[in-house]
Design brief:
About 45% of the residues lie in helices and about 10% in strands. The protein has about 160 residues and is α/β, with parallel strands linked by helices. The chain has two domains: about 100 residues, Uridine Diphospho-n-acetylenolpyruvylglucosamine Reductase, domain 2, CATH 3.30.43.10; about 45 residues. It has a four-stranded mixed β-sheet with strand order 1-2-4-3, with helices on one face. Helix 6 packs antiparallel against helix 7. The longest helix is centred in the C-terminal third of the chain and has 21 residues. The model has no long low-confidence stretch (mean pLDDT about 80).
Length: about 160
């Protein structure tokens, strides 16, 4: 079901790309931030966005952004919901842009090839909750990188 105010957006997106169902809005209403988890344990219901949209192409994203600009609606991007820093915290009146359907890889450039396997997830996730193991792991990673750089720096020129 789509509200009349969202019908103009729904008409520009693939069928089923806009939802106002409570289950869909609840699914994207929070990430894994410890404050969100503790709130659930204490019985608090998270604030729900007005709707969820699932773009499938850059053209869909452009239509969503144009709609948001024209209506003054705030957008909240949503990936996997695995962040632990409260990034996915929409409020009523906002529109969540769930990017899960944008799953095709269009190209891989040289920078992506060089960075494959690198992630900041360990540092961000563990560091955000002050996990001692995560901090120790990241210190070892950086110490190892500095050691390798010391021995191979002559090849970098």
């Amino acid at each position: 079901m789509v509200a009349p105010s969202l019908s103009s957006l729904a008409s520009r997106l693939p069928h089923g790309a806009v939802s106002m169902l409570e289950a869909d809005r609840l699914a994207v209403s929070m990430d894994l931030w410890p404050r969100h988890i503790l709130g659930l344990w204490s019985g608090k219901t998270p604030a729900l966005p007005t709707a969820v949209v699932w773009p499938e192409s850059t053209r869909d994203v452009q239509a969503i952004v144009a709609y948001a600009h024209a209506t003054g609606t705030a957008l909240v991007p949503y990936g996997a919901g695995s962040s632990v820093v409260g990034g996915a915290s929409p409020t009523p009146g906002q529109l969540v842009v769930d990017l899960k359907r944008m799953a095709r890889v269009l190209s891989i450039d040289d920078g992506a090839r060089m960075a494959r396997g690198c992630t900041s997830g360990q540092a961000l996730s563990g560091g955000a909750v002050l996990s001692a193991g995560s901090w120790a792991f990241m210190m070892c990673v950086f110490a190892g990188a500095y050691a390798v750089a010391y021995f191979v720096r002559k090849f970098w020129n």
